[in-house]
Amino acid sequence: MERRSGDYNWTNALILFPFGSRVKYCGERFQYLVEEGYEVFAAVGPTTHAEIIHNAYTQDRRRIDGMAFIEKPHLLTDLLDSDYVLDRENRSEQYFK
User: Fold this and answer.
1) Nearest alpha-carbon partner for 18 in 50, 43, 48, 54
2) CA pair distance 30, 24, nearest whole angstrom
3) What's the rounded Cα separation, in Å, for the pair 23 and 31?
4) Residue pair 29/17 in contact by the 8 Å Cβ criterion
5) Which residues of 31-58 are buried (b: 16+ CB within 10 A; e: fewer)?
6) What is the arrangement of strands in the sheet containing 14-16, beginning at the earlier edge strand?
7) Mind listing the pLDDT tens digit for each residue in 10-42?
8) Statement: the pTM of the whole predicted model exceeds 0.70
9) First-to-last CA distance in the chain?
10) In sequence order, what DSSP letters do the residues of 60-74 get, joined into one string?
């Protein structure tokens, strides 16, 4: 898929979805995007996942942010210790509720 911006042309076959957004893999929107030339779909999910669907690479990357450190630290234990990373001394208690 060719895009133009200013003096630059480029081919873009990658969609990076922000947290909480994605298309249903195998749905009509997904099929349309594949037909338009998109080949890589990267969403955010609770675990790391990768799969080839209809000749497109689909993946979930893990959410690694302050909210995940507080709300779902068990999903990150293979990567880091959330309690070590969080600065509980310099943040108010309400931040962690």
Assistant:
1) 43
2) 6
3) 10
4) no
5) bebbeeebeebebbeeeeeeeeeeebeb
6) 14-16, 40-45, 56-62, 49-53
7) 567 888 888 778 888 888 999 999 998 899 999
8) no
9) 44
10) EEE--SHHHHHH-GG
The structure tokens listed for 53 are: 């669907």
Question: Which residue, chain included where needed, has tokens 């893990």?
Answer: 62
CB 23 within 8 A of CB 30: yes
Between the alpha carbon of residue 84 and those of residues 23, 44, 68, 69, 91, the distances in Å are 35, 24, 14, 10, 14
Pairwise CA distance, residues 61 & 79, whole Å: 13
DSSP 3-state assignment of 28?
helix
| Residues 44, 17 contacting (CB under 8 angstroms) | yes
